[in-house]
Amino acid sequence: MNGYERIQAALKNEKPDKIPVMLHNFMVAAKEAGTSMAKFRDNPKIMAEVFIKSVEKYEFDGILVDLDTVTLAGAVGVPVDFPENEPARSHKGNLISLDEVKKLKKVNIENYRYIQNWLEATRIIKQHYKNEIYVRGNCEQAPFSLASLMRGSQEWMLDLIMGEPELVIELLAYCTEITCQFIRLMSQTGCDMVSNGDSPAGPEMVSPEMYEMFALPWEKIVVNEAHKCNLPYTLHICGNTETILDLMLQTGTDALELDYKTDVQKAFNATHDKACFIGNIDPSGVIAMGNIDLVEKKTNELLEIYSKTNRFILNAGCAIPSNTPKKIFGQ
Asked: Which of 47, 55, 62, 306 could lock onto 22 through a cystine, CB 3.0 to 4.6 A?
């Protein structure tokens, strides 16, 4: 089997010849290639080359094509900073009040420079590997997360409790269309899977009841959009997601990528016969800051639990920091 076939097998609940590996490694891959984050995000050819070099060096089975966590926000007008050697970031939203939702205009995110770079890099990678390596085109923020960036996280939390319900729903509907735009655009690159993150919707920020009310309905729409494009879908939420695992599965997602804070045995119990599990080694405390023995120990513990199912792809629980030492990857 090649990498593409291994990951396809895991998604279909078929037995691969070995455990497939697809790491969330864009930051460490750029650093190893001697590329700044500025060059990485500004040039799709460089971005593609960074991922290709990483696969050639470590023989990964799949590539998670990721760029920043505020690209969709930038596309809809949120102020964004672009550090030279770190991922882009935002510090405030672009909606001063929830009332401004009424004035939002339709945006074609394809016109945003960094969306285009992201899409083009994914095209280049897929054309390079064809069906040899599996390509997951991440589509960044799910609707709840994007709404949080547009309002600012504190203001968004207050909106959910004190804001006009009609305006909250209107903003979520607007953000859902933006997220679905990215899904449709990414599907045209030839990628094999799409995904989104919705971490502000997790239990570390809102209750399971609020997740079910304000995030789940819109995640379902996004998953359905991916399936309309004939692509499998992965949903990622950071933090301890134990209390919403069953709800996350109600989205219809094909895979869950979960953080290390979610107990592995509980994740297995909830997902093993319903969706593929992607994860979930601690990217900072274990991979970046731990020694080789600790990485092996935690990986073996994870492999032991997931030896009872085919629905498993090895990954970190979230993005691997750029300061991860080369020795962790066997160099």
From this structure: 62
